[in-house]
Amino acid sequence: MPVGFIIFFIIVAILCVAGFVFTFAIMFSPKFKAKFMGKQIEASKYMIDQHKNDIKSISDNVAEATKGATKTTARAIKEGFKDTVFCKHCGAEIDTDSTFCKSCGKKQ
Fold first, then answer.
1. Which domain holds residue 8?
2. Does residue 98 fall inside a structural domain?
3. Are 103 and 90 in contact (CB under 8 A)?
4. Are 32 and 22 in contact (CB under 8 A)?
5. Residue 21, domain member (yes or no)
6. How buried is 94 (Cβ within 10 angstroms: 0-12 exposed, 13-18 middle, 19+ buried)?
7. Distance from chain centroid for Cα 102
8. What are the pLDDT tens digits along the chain (108 aa)?
9. Residues 92, 104: contact at Cβ < 8 Å?
10. Considering the domain boundaries, does residue 20 fall inside one?
11. Which end of the chain is more exposed for a tag (fewer CB within 10 A), N or C?
12. What pTM was estimated for this model as a whole?
């Protein structure tokens, strides 16, 4: 066997063992897991600080794009909670506690 192949095999074996050790350390060591997660949180904070304007711009664009759908959804929810009946004179939809029809003005 060539020496290069043996060295390559040893390096791959070492990397596999290191990967397993790292995985088990994260799974079973709360201290190691916290330290590793702390680094990820620091990186996330750094990225957010560096890109605040981009994040705000994206958020504003999403809010603007969904404004109509949000209004429609809110209106549908509001109407879903409202108790309604129909006027016995004109058939218009009215609130159950209405004394007069909003459409024809006749007493219910």
1. 1-33
2. yes
3. yes
4. no
5. yes
6. buried
7. 41
8. 688 889 999 999 999 999 999 888 888 888 888 888 888 899 999 999 999 999 999 999 999 999 888 888 888 787 776 667 888 888 888 888 888 888 899 988
9. yes
10. yes
11. N
12. 0.36
